[in-house]
Design goal:
about 300 residues, elongated, 9 helices, two-stranded antiparallel sheet, mainly alpha
Length: about 300
């Protein structure tokens, strides 16, 4: 019975995607998405500054799409009405916070978008990929944490119950009045001992503890990499001749920016490979509730 309940919880709790329901799992994934979005926003602002855009609120959809600002965790995009509502709210907040006459029209943008160097494009794409990887790792960490806790409690409970049954049978007298009860207790002890062995075998097979620790390590590494990219992009020196982010020459292996990009790619590949290897639960990009999906805004 315990194994059946655990299996049902693992299936329905683990395979049910986070949709419009309010669950702790949704809150955990949504929280990580907000953190990742805030990091990506910092990178997008630095890239936009290279084109003379001093603020991103209310920018056309083409510019926001280039900067990957309205992308949801599942790869979809906010609806036009929702994006306009968010942009309108941002403009009002900026107008209220800024002194009169301090807001200027953004420069360097056109109806088609903004001009970005290959260095800026790579940083945006890497940041967008890291954000989704962080969500997957957070989702896996949350799921495997509760599977780990459930397995441990089941094993402890069955082990304690088996010990109690065996102890009761050993102290019972062998008279005829209690022979039937002693037999039932003995059968129950054998049954629960077998269930406990099966639960331990399943725990070893799925390995939720190892997967949970692996997901937590991957999440910490992804956060650090995302932060490093944001700091590096935010500290780039804008060219004096034109408002454009610096670029790198892919053919020049000694180019510092090229080396920086390769280092980011190598670190991301290593983190993703370590996270995917031996996972007991297939990673998925959970989609937070649409009511909370519009909260992170630019």
């Amino acid at each position: 019975m315990a194994l059946t309940a655990a299996a049902g919880w693992m299936y329905f709790g683990g395979h049910g995607r986070v949709d419009g329901r309010t669950t702790k799992r949704q809150d955990a994934v949504s929280h990580e998405w907000r953190l990742a979005y805030a990091e990506h926003k910092n990178i997008a602002e630095a890239v936009a500054a290279c084109s003379g855009i001093t603020y991103l609120a209310g920018q056309p959809g083409s510019i926001r799409e280039q900067l990957r600002l309205d992308v949801l965790p599942d790869g979809g995009r906010r609806g036009e009405d929702e994006a306009k509502t968010v942009a309108s709210k941002e403009i009002k907040e900026i107008a209220f916070a800024e002194p009169k006459g301090s807001m200027t029209e953004p420069k360097g943008s056109t109806a088609a978008g903004i001009s970005r160097s290959n260095y800026a494009r790579t940083a945006i794409y890497l940041s967008d990929g890291i954000a989704r990887s962080r969500i997957e790792s957070a989702n896996n960490a949350y799921y495997n944490h509760w599977v780990m806790v459930a397995f441990q409690w089941i094993i402890v409970f069955i082990g304690a119950l088996t010990t109690i049954l065996i102890s009761l049978k050993s102290i019972m007298t062998a008279d005829d009045t209690r022979k039937a009860l002693s037999l039932r207790i003995g059968i129950a002890a054998i049954l629960f001992s077998s269930i406990g062995t099966a639960a331990s075998a399943l725990n070893s097979f799925y390995g939720p503890r190892e997967t949970y620790l692996k997901a937590e390590r991957s999440l910490a590494s992804l956060r650090q990499l995302h932060s490093d990219i944001a700091i590096q992009i935010g500290s780039i020196r804008e060219p004096q001749s034109k408002k454009e982010c610096p670029s790198f020459d892919p053919a020049n292996k000694d180019d510092p920016l090229y080396k920086q990009i390769q280092d980011w790619k190598t670190r991301l590949a290593a983190i993703v490979s370590a996270s995917d290897s031996g996972s007991s639960y297939p990673s998925e990009t959970a989609v937070p509730d649409q009511s909370s999906a519009s909260a992170p805004s630019q």
